[in-house]
Design a protein that fits this description.
By secondary structure, the protein is of the alpha/beta class. It has 14 helices and twelve strands. The strands form two sheets. An eight-stranded mixed beta sheet has the order 6-7-8-3-9-10-12-11, sandwiched between helices. A four-stranded antiparallel beta sheet has the order 2-1-4-5, covered by helices on one side. A hairpin with a 2-residue loop joins β9 and β10. α4 packs across α5 and α5 crosses α7. The longest helix has 18 residues. It is globular. It binds adenosine-5'-triphosphate. The site of adenosine-5'-triphosphate has 14 residues, from β2 and α1. The site of adenosine-5'-triphosphate (ATP) has 14 residues, from β2 and α1. It is found in: Cell membrane.
Length: 347
């Protein structure tokens, strides 16, 4: 297995409170696989990725438990994590402008990243930089090496960021909301770039997104996060066809129509996410769940297997694993299938 995250917990402490942003999270990514982590704002998606990258800033933030194994090495205890992070694992963020240096040319930034991690001559690095810019679809790549970040459009900058991420030849890319700030046409182009990267380089992708359309189009498996925990995980086809947790059901029901603006934050279900600094006696979703009963408010459900490869954290599902009790929520099946059809996954 390429990446194995096991029982990961990450906390932020201030003088008055402790927020457990990631709570006992476990998942894997195989070589060449694309796994999506989905959930609304504040669910812990980004902090999971930042924990993998070693970018949670002490002293306020700290990984407090669990392990992160990458290519067999424990990233939390390895002596020289930079050897792996930033080279074998690369992260691409939502806002390229904050990750690119405005006063250095794209060529300089690409080749410096490459030469820092791999022993390439200046000329070799330049040749590779041109190849990477071509791979991500930047026309006239050799000339564009001399351009500065502000001379690129938003979509082109995101392509440059992907090229930067690829410059060290990573086995895994963590892509955090990389299409969120872009308009729909450009979003589609960036997803095509990621597709090309996967096919041509075989890079695995951990795709963090709130957009289920992106999930359907790109991911083989999905993990749904809520309140810092994993609440459901399954193959993409399985999750869309037969969600087992009411939160996932709500997410699917709220999938924006194809002609709507997908850059809007996902606010699918009435109510607000739980306060992660307060202990929760029962299911974290209970306060917003149309199906909640007494047990849901008093005892936390465990993440249990509902069928092979499909896990859900829900008392209802544990009692009725066929999911029949969830049926009847208007229109959800149709909407979910429309998204899958849009992504070319079903006829
Ligand atoms: N530096 C920080 N200090 C304190 N709390 C933080 C910090 N970073 C994140 N958190 C908290 O951790 C929780 C999870 O945040 P995270 O950014 O992972 O959510 P997310 O699902 O990625 O949402 P978004 O899409 O808005 O980034 C939130 O409650 C957030 O307030």
């Amino acid at each position: 297995m390429l990446l194995e995250v096991e029982n990961l917990s990450t906390e932020f402490r201030t003088r008055s409170r402790t927020v457990r942003a990631v709570d006992d999270v476990s998942f894997t990514v195989a070589e060449g696989e694309t796994v999506a982590v989905v959930g609304e704002s504040g669910s812990g998606k980004s902090v999971t990725a930042l924990s993998i990258m070693g970018l949670v800033q002490a002293p306020a933030g700290r990984v407090t438990g669990g392990s992160i194994r990458f290519e067999g090495e424990d990233l939390l205890s390895v002596k020289d994590p930079r050897r792996i992070r930033g080279s074998r694992v690369a992260m691409v963020f939502q806002d390229p402008m904050s990750s690119l240096n405005p006063v250095l040319t794209i060529g300089r930034q690409l080749t410096e990243a490459m030469r820092a991690h791999r022993s390439l001559s200046r000329e070799e690095a330049r040749t590779r930089a041109v190849e990477l810019l071509q791979l991500v679809g930047i026309p006239d790549a050799a000339t564009r090496l001399r351009s500065y970040p502000h001379q690129f459009s938003g979509g082109m900058r995101q392509r440059v960021m992907i090229a930067m991420g690829l410059s060290c030849d990573p086995a895994l890319i963590l892509a955090d909301e990389i299409t969120t700030a872009l308009d729909v046409t450009i979003q589609a182009q960036i997803l095509e770039v990621l597709d090309r990267v996967r096919t041509e380089l075989g890079t695995a992708v951990l795709l963090i997104t709130h957009d289920l359309g992106v999930v359907a189009r790109m991911a083989e498996r999905v993990t749904v996060m809520y309140g810092g925990q994993i609440v459901e995980t399954a193959t993409t086809a399985d999750l869309f066809a037969a969600p087992r947790m009411p939160y996932t059901w709500g997410l699917l029901a709220s999938v924006p129509r194809l002609d709507s603006d997908r850059s809007q934050p996902l606010v699918p279900i009435e109510g607000t996410p739980p306060d992660l600094s307060q202990p929760q006696p029962g299911c974290r979703f209970a306060a917003r769940c149309a199906f909640a009963r007494e047990i849901c408010r008093t005892r936390p459900p465990a993440l249990e297997v509902v069928r092979p490869g499909h896990l859900a954290r829900c008392w209802g599902t544990q009692e009725h694993p066929d999911g029949g009790w969830l049926r009847g929520v208007d229109g959800t099946d149709r909407e979910a299938l429309a998204v899958l059809a849009d992504a070319g996954k079903v006829a």
